[in-house]
Write a structure and sequence with these properties.
Elements: E1 7-12, H1 18-32, E2 38-41, H2 50-62, E3 67-72, H3 78-91, E4 95-99, H4 118-129, E5 134-139, H5 150-163, E6 167-172, H6 176-188, E7 195-199, H7 205-215, H8 221-229, H9 234-254, E8 259-263, H10 268-278
Parallel strand pairs: 1-2, 1-8, 2-3, 3-4, 4-5, 5-6, 6-7, 7-8
Helix pairs in contact: 4-5, 9-10
The protein binds flavin-adenine dinucleotide (FAD).
Flavin-adenine dinucleotide (FAD) binds near residues 42, 45 and 159.
Length: about 280
C-alpha cells in the first residue's frame, strides 16, 4: 500500500468533565489539521454514558468534521438501537462502528438485550437503513478473549462481513506478524473487506498492562520488560513507545495495511509523535 492512499482515523472517548471536554476539543482541533478520514467516538466504554457520546458526536459534527459514532448492542432493545440510528441518520452521520460491547461485570444474563452479537447489529442496520451507513466492525488479530479458538473467532468475524460490514478496525497489538497472519487467514476464507490496524501509542506502562490484560492484547515480553525497567520515568517510556509503535506502523503499511486507526485516548501528542515520524502529513485527507 502506498502510504499516501491509506486511510487514517482517530478514536476518541467521550469526556465526562468540563476539563475533559476542553481537552478533547483541543485534541480534535490539533489532530484535525492532519486531515483524517474521520474521528470515531466510543460508546459505553469505561463507564461513559450514551449522552456523553451524543454530546461529543454533536460537537464534532458542529465543527464540520466527520464523526463515526461507535454503537454497541449488548443490553439494548432493537427499538432503542434503531432510535439512536435514526438520530444519527437525521444528523447526516454516514459511518457507524458497530459492536457487541461488554456487559458490566456482575450483570446477569437478563441484561443482555435483544441482540447477542455484533453480526446481528450489522444485520439490523442493513435491514432498517440499507446502505445509509458505512459500517465498521471490530477484528481481533490476536483473537477475542472470549472466543473458544482462533478459527471460531474468524468464523464469527466472517458473520459480520456476510451481514454487511464494509470494513474493520482491529484491536491494538504490538506484533506485526499477528496482523499478517490474520490477513492471510481472512484471505483463505474469502474475507476481502479492508482491515485497518488499530494503533495504541504507549504512554503509561501500568495503564497499558491493565488495558491489555482486559482486552486480550499481548505486550511482547521484551517490550514489557523494557518498559517495566523504566519505572516512573515517563519520558523514557514515551520515547521507547514512540520508536516501537512507529516501527510497527511502518511494517504494517509496508505489508499493505489499508490505513491506520489511532486510539488517541484523547491526547494529541503521543499520536502526533508517531504521525510525524511516519511523515504522514502529506498522506492524509
Ligand atoms: P462480536 O463480534 O459479537 O464478538 C464477541 C465474541 O463473541 C467473540 O468471542 C466472537 O468470537 C463471539 N461471536 C461473535 N459472533 C458470534 C455468533 N454469532 N455466535 C457465537 N459467537 C459469536 N467496547 C465498548 O463498549 N464501546 C466501544 O466504543 C468500543 N469500541 C471498540 C472499537 C474497536 C475498534 C474494538 C476492536 C473494540 C471496541 N470495543 C468497544 C470493545 C468491544 O465491545 C469488545 O471487544 C467486545 O467484547 C466484543 O465486541 P465485538 O463487536 O467484537 O463482538
Amino acid at each position: 500500500m502506498n502510504h499516501t492512499t491509506a486511510i487514517y482515523s482517530f478514536e476518541l472517548f467521550p469526556p465526562k468533565t468540563e476539563k475533559g471536554i476542553a481537552n478533547l476539543r483541543e485534541t480534535v482541533s490539533t489532530l484535525n489539521a492532519r486531515q483524517p478520514a474521520f474521528f470515531s467516538v466510543t460508546y459505553g466504554a469505561g463507564g461513559s454514558t450514551q449522552s456523553n457520546t451524543f454530546a461529543t458526536v454533536d460537537w464534532i459534527r458542529d465543527q464540520g468534521i466527520d464523526a463515526a459514532p461507535h454503537l454497541s448492542c449488548i443490553g439494548s432493545s432493537t427499538d432503542e438501537i434503531t432510535t439512536i440510528l435514526r438520530r444519527y441518520e437525521a444528523q447526516g452521520i454516514t459511518r457507524i462502528v458497530a459492536l457487541r460491547g461488554d456487559l458490566p461485570s456482575g450483570a446477569g444474563a437478563g441484561a443482555m438485550g435483544d441482540l447477542n452479537h455484533a453480526n446481528e447489529l450489522v444485520a439490523l442496520i442493513r435491514k432498517h437503513f440499507g446502505d445509509r451507513f458505512r459500517i465498521e466492525v471490530a477484528a481481533y488479530p490476536e483473537m477475542h478473549p472470549q472466543a473458544p479458538n482462533f478459527n471460531r473467532d474468524l468464523d464469527n468475524f466472517k458473520r459480520k462481513v456476510d451481514a454487511g460490514a464494509d470494513s474493520a478496525i482491529t484491536q491494538y497489538f504490538y506484533n506485526a506478524d499477528a496482523y499478517a497472519s490474520f490477513i492471510d487467514a481472512c484471505t483463505t476464507r474469502s474475507i476481502d473487506i479492508p482491515v485497518v490496524p488499530g494503533i495504541m501509542p504507549i504512554t503509561n506502562f501500568s495503564n497499558l498492562v491493565r488495558f491489555s490484560d482486559a482486552c486480550g492484547a499481548e505486550i511482547p515480553r521484551w517490550l514489557r520488560k523494557r518498559l517495566e525497567d523504566y519505572g516512573d520515568d515517563i519520558e523514557s517510556i514515551r520515547k521507547l513507545g514512540t520508536e516501537v509503535v512507529t516501527d510497527l506502523c511502518l511494517r504494517l503499511l509496508d505489508m499493505g495495511a489499508p490505513g491506520l486507526h489511532f486510539y488517541t485516548m484523547n491526547q494529541a501528542a503521543p499520536t502526533l509523535a508517531i504521525w510525524d515520524n511516519l511523515g504522514l502529513d502529506a498522506a492524509a485527507g
